[in-house]
Structures are given as C-alpha cells and as structure tokens.
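Incident log, support desk, overnight shift.

02:14 A customer reports that sequence design results differ from what the structure should imply. Their input is reproduced verbatim below. On-call engineer (initials T.W.) acknowledged and began investigating.
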C-alpha cells in the first residue's frame, strides 16, 4: 500500500450501504481497504455476502471490532466509514475515537447513520426516543449535504439520510434565493434497498413488486432532519409536509418538491437559480428536462429540474439512495476531509437499464 493511500475501516460491513462503501473504496485511487467489520459475519469471506465484489475484495474476510481497534492504534492516520445501524453507530464510533486518542493516532470518521444528524442530544432524543449514546461528540461532526457546507471546521462528518438528501438538494437553493414561501410539500418514492438488508413485510418481493404505497405520511423521521438542515444551510425555518412511498424497484429515489412562489420567477428563473447554486458542484446536474431515475441509479450523481405554473414551483430531484444518499455522499465527505477533490473516485456514470 502506498503511503499516499489511507487505510479504510468500515463498520456494519455486511449491509447494503457497506457493500457500496466497499465497492467505492476499491475503485478509489487513494484509499485501501484495511478492514470491514461485521459482528454477525466476522471471519467469513466478504465475497460470501457480496458475490459481485469478488474481483475487488478477493479472499478478504470480515474483521472483528478488536482487529479494527488494533489497526487504528497502529496506523498514523486511518479512515473510519460507519454503516452501522442507527442508535449503535455513535457508540462504536466513540469507542474508535477513544482508541485513536489514547494511541496518539489520527482518525477521520464519516457516518452514514442518523446518530450525528442533529446538532444537539435533545433533538436526537425527540426524534428517536432514546438518549444519544455519545452526546459529547456531536460538535465534532458536521452534517449536511456536502454541496451545502462549503466551509467545514469539524474533524468528522455525517451524511444526511437518503430521502433527506433528495429533498435538501431541491429545497435549500430555493430558500437561499428567497424564491418561495417557506412551506414545502414533498412526495418521494424510494427503492427497496432503502429498507436495509434484513427482510421485512414491506420489502418482501411478492408485496413490493408491481406495487406502490405510502408509509409514515407527515411523521417520517427525515421531516425534522430536513427542516433542521435547511435552517443550518440558509438561516431560515421552513414547514415541511413529507409523504414517503415504497416503489417496486431496488435502488433510487425520485422526489417531487412543491412550494408556493414568493416572487414572479419563471421556470427558466428557477432553473438558473439551481444552476448557479450548484455551479462548481461536480456531482449535481441541473437540466431543463425532467430527470429519469434510471439515468442516475447506480451513480453518485444527483439530477434536478424544475417547473413553474400558477404561482407554484415544482422541483424534481433524483438520486441513488445507496450512493448519493449514503455511501457516495460519505466518500464525497471523506474526500473533502482529507483534502482531495470531492468527486475523486465518484465520477463513474450510471449503469443504465438497471
């Protein structure tokens, strides 16, 4: 391994998001997998859980938490990507940070869970119904869509949720430009991989295929997350009314975002606002044509478009839930934290026809 390659440890290594982290790390020019930790699969071949990754991971096996801790103590600077479950990730991350501090080594952390998405412990408890496991670490993390936080002063970062990312990409530029009244209505559809690897009634194939249904309307946990992160990015409070849906496909999110205009802006004006806001953002594409989800599924890109009619603006936002909404967003954050161009290793186009 070159001295220019950072060793990467992945937590929660056998889940879907971790699988995409493994794939992205394998294709990244300055990262090298050091360990993928799985409490349920420790010692088992990684390729047994992810056969499609066999060319990238070879005979590598899942590691134990103790093996990962030893790596953190021995490496001068290591990377920790957490795909551990909500409520568990912060405790594991805190344990790793403690070990690095005790050993005098450097550790850079990016978390894909919800554990560092709120700036204070009370907000976390209000949404998740339990105390935060490591509240003293909250101020060490920045949570935002990477494009919405140009200056980062913390050592670590946290990627917003997949639904939240799709919404924030459309909402934040409109609020920042003062184009809309601060009341949003969002209908968004996600693929079945968003429910994780463990089978549930709502992800069972006979129920999910050729089907479409809403769940947790107006009370989904991403609703307060989007409101909080919009205010952090723009300084303005919003009201959000969000209805998520489960779609009959494996990956991708398509969000339709509605808001009343506060100006006489036209469709062209809104498209220009989005274009200017994301100028220089290599992973966000703004197009006059409405996005097709299959054109971005399997990539780390986001696709946005907009229309205005009768005093209402509609922004359509499409992302891959596992990539731009999770693993890809985490690698984008990691690039920034270690001083690399943010799109390093993330620019492969979508596969198409998924």
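02:41 Re-run completed on a clean worker. Output:
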């Amino acid at each position: 391994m070159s001295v220019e390659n950072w060793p990467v440890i992945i937590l929660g290594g056998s889940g879907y998001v971790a699988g995409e982290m493994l794939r992205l790390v394998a294709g990244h020019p300055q990262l090298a997998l050091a360990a993928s930790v799985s409490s349920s699969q420790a010692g088992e071949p990684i390729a047994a859980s992810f056969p499609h990754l066999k060319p990238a991971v070879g005979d590598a096996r899942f590691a134990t938490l103790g093996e990962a801790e030893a790596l953190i103590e021995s490496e001068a600077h290591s990377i920790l990507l957490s795909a551990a479950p909500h409520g568990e990730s912060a405790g594991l991350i805190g344990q790793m940070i403690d070990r690095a501090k005790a050993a005098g080594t450097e550790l850079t952390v990016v978390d894909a869970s919800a554990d560092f998405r709120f700036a204070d412990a009370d907000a976390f408890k209000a949404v998740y119904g339990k105390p935060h496991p490591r509240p003293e670490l909250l101020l060490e993390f920045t949570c935002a869509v990477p494009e919405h936080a140009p200056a980062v002063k913390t050592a670590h970062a946290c990627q917003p949720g997949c639904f939240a990312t799709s919404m924030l990409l459309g909402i934040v530029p409109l609020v920042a430009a003062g184009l809309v009244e601060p009341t949003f209505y969002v209908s968004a559809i996600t693929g079945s991989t968003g429910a994780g690897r463990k089978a549930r009634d709502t992800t069972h194939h006979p129920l999910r295929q050729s089907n479409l249904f809403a769940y947790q309307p107006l009370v989904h946990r991403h609703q307060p997350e989007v409101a909080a992160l919009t205010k952090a990015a723009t300084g303005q409070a919003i009201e959000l009314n969000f209805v998520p849906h489960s779609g009959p496909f494996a990956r991708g999110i398509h969000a339709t975002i509605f808001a009343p205009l506060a100006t006489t802006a036209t469709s062209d004006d809104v498209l220009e606002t989005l274009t200017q806001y994301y100028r220089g953002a290599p992973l966000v594409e703004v197009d006059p044509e409405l996005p097709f989800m299959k054109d971005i599924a399997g990539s780390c890109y986001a696709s946005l478009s907009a229309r205005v009619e009768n005093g209402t603006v509609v922004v359509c936002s499409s992302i891959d839930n596992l990539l731009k909404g999770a693993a890809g967003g985490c690698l984008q954050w990691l690039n920034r934290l270690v001083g690399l161009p943010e799109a390093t290793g993330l620019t492969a186009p979508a596969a198409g026809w998924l």
